[in-house]
Amino acid sequence: MFLIVLLITRLPYAFLISILIAFTALIPVVGAFIGCAVGAFLFAVTVGSSLMGVAGMLFFIPLTSVIYSLIKEWTYKRLKDKSVE
Q: Cα separations (Å) of 61 from 15, 31, 41, 72, 83?
């Protein structure tokens, strides 16, 4: 599934990221998070370097982290409002 999405978006290293996610998903509980984190890191580096070069790589990694934190807080707030937690 990841390979198809990465090939559609034409990101470099699609096979490498997909294989890494597949192997880390075999680790119970934390494996999927490890694979996702590495994929997000490679995505941030790729987008940052294509937009702004080396400075973009250094800027987009923390930006991706902040966006992830905001989405996580928003998701937890929605779950708490719906009393799912």
A: 21, 21, 7, 17, 33
